[in-house]
Amino acid sequence: MQLTPDETTVFTLWGLGINETVVNTWIVMAMLTVASMLVTRKLRPDVPPNRWRTTLEVIVTGIQRQVEDISPQSSRHVLYFSGTLFLFIALSNLLLVVPGFTPPTSSLSTTAALALSVLIAVPLFGISRQGIGGYLKTYIQPSIIMLPFNIISEFSRGISLAIRLYGNVMSGAVIAGILLGVAPFFFPVVMDVLGLLTGLIQAYIFAILATVYISSATAPVHKPVKTPGHEPERGRDHHKEQDR
Amino acid sequence: MSIDWVTVLAQIANFLVLVWLLKRFLYKPILKGIDSREAEIAARMSEATRAKEKAAAAEADFVARQQKLQADQDALAERVREQAKQQRDALLAEAHEKMEQERQDTQVHLARERERFTSELYKASAETLYQLAGRALHDLADERLEEHIALHVIGKLDPLSDELASAAEHAEEAVATTHAALPEGARHEVEAALEQRVPGLPLRFATDDSQSPGLVLRIGSLQLAWTVDSYTDELVELLEERLASGESGRVNAHGG
């Protein structure tokens, strides 16, 4: 059984093998970009919004509201980053129901790339917000003894993000493949429906956690940070990661 | 399960490209549209608020004007009522004054009428009395009344000799006025009697139709009269009493 689409090379470009993960990622990117272009190309104040534009407005404003709930002082760059994470992961996971399409999020390389992106984005947002000195001070809070633990926590976040997303998506695909062999006409349908639900939930969790990490890096030290459905917590090391 | 680091780098690049693409074609246009729509809504709300405030101000102004107009109307009505009352009082006072004036005029007119009537009555009574007395005296005793009056005057001059002499000092003549001309004999007797008491004073005889029958002698400022006026007065008073009693009787008869 093939557990990752990284091993499938679709074509070779300039001597470099392009695997299925990258190709499927391009497909997802193309779908998102083309859909956005088609909906927003006639976006003028004098043209009343149609159903597609309204749908996109609902999605974008929903993401914006979630980001603002977590970090009221966040800029729109956080929206661009976290929103893209959510849309990419959600569409990738939804395409699980397409026969023959392997979601790029079922590749550990993709989830690792997304986790690395978050890992890199968090200090960048923090530095842009507080400056280098202000951001680095957060690593020695509440005392310098906590420095190694904070560094370990920072990297463990990215690893947990990557493993969680990969495990959830890949396990769904593996379970669907196994059940397809056991009961080929019933379980795959149920698993696909369940996969759609868990795919959306994972996309939401990934984007929300990324936003929480970014907001904790951009928020002043010891300032309460809200998480959805939880009471405000203090400090950058006390965020509970929501596991499945 | 392994990580292909080339794929990881490619996916990072893909993700960054996707962030840029969605920012370019999704987030910015959508958010720009939402912002412009919210700005338009805010502008409309602001405009509506201004219109509402303007309408409220216009309403307040209208209410104030209406109240002022009502107050002006009330004041005008009150002023008109006051003027009407004053005009009515003035008209009533003028009417009362006019009525009083007319009443006084009527009373004056009645008094004049009464006076004229009394005068005529007096005159007619005197004439009647004089004619009746004269006729009775002539028919019964073949005497003339005026001659006897003249003779009687001569008899009355004795107690007045001093007054006559005093009056004659400042008089140029004496005038004896009668209703009708005196007979020649009576004139001589009067002249003789006056010459005896006031010597040298000329006597002139005159007649006056308006005078009561009798004789009036004037010497300067002195005037002596023997006429039937006193009898006429008694007759008039008697007639008035009778008339008054007769009128009262009629009133009592009608009222009773």
Automatic annotation (TrEMBL), chain A:
Location, primary (coarse class): membrane
UniProt region (Disordered), positions on chain: 223-244
Family: Belongs to the ATPase A chain family.
Species assigned in the record: Halomonas urmiana
Topology of the protein relative to the lipid bilayer: Multi-pass membrane protein
Classification via SUPFAM superfamilies: F1F0 ATP synthase subunit A
InterPro entries according to UniProt: ATP_syn_F0_a_bact/chloroplast, ATP_synth_F0_asu, ATP_synth_F0_asu_AS, F0_ATP_A_sf
Pfam families xref list: ATP-synt_A (PF00119)
Descriptive protein name: ATP synthase subunit a
Membrane-crossing segments per the record: 78-101, 107-127, 165-187, 193-214
Keywords: ATP synthesis, Cell membrane, CF(0), Hydrogen ion transport, Ion transport, Membrane, Transmembrane, Transmembrane helix, Transport
Automatic annotation (TrEMBL), chain B:
Recorded topology in the membrane: Single-pass membrane protein
Subcellular compartments: Cell membrane; Endomembrane system
Subunit structure as annotated in this protein's UniProt entry: F-type ATPases have 2 components, F(1) - the catalytic core - and F(0) - the membrane proton channel. F(1) has five subunits: alpha(3), beta(3), gamma(1), delta(1), epsilon(1). F(0) has three main subunits: a(1), b(2) and c(10-14). The alpha and beta chains form an alternating ring which encloses part of the gamma chain. F(1) is attached to F(0) by a central stalk formed by the gamma and epsilon chains, while a peripheral stalk is formed by the delta and b chains.
Pfam families: ATP-synt_B (PF00430)
Gene that specifies this protein: atpF
Principal localisation: membrane
Organism: Halomonas urmiana
GO MF, one annotated term: proton-transporting ATP synthase activity, rotational mechanism
Cellular-component GO terms for this entry: endomembrane system; plasma membrane; proton-transporting ATP synthase complex
Coiled coil region boundaries: 81-116
Alphabetized UniProt keyword annotations: ATP synthesis, Cell membrane, CF(0), Coiled coil, Hydrogen ion transport, Ion transport, Membrane, Transmembrane, Transmembrane helix, Transport
Family named by the database record: Belongs to the ATPase B chain family.
InterPro entries given in the database record: ATP_synth_b/b'su_bac/chlpt, ATP_synthase_B_chain
This protein's name: ATP synthase subunit b
Biological function: F(1)F(0) ATP synthase produces ATP from ADP in the presence of a proton or sodium gradient. F-type ATPases consist of two structural domains, F(1) containing the extramembraneous catalytic core and F(0) containing the membrane proton channel, linked together by a central stalk and a peripheral stalk. During catalysis, ATP synthesis in the catalytic domain of F(1) is coupled via a rotary mechanism of the central stalk subunits to proton translocation.
HAMAP family per the UniProt record, alphabetical: ATP_synth_b_bprime
Segment forming the signal sequence: none
Entry's transmembrane regions: 6-22
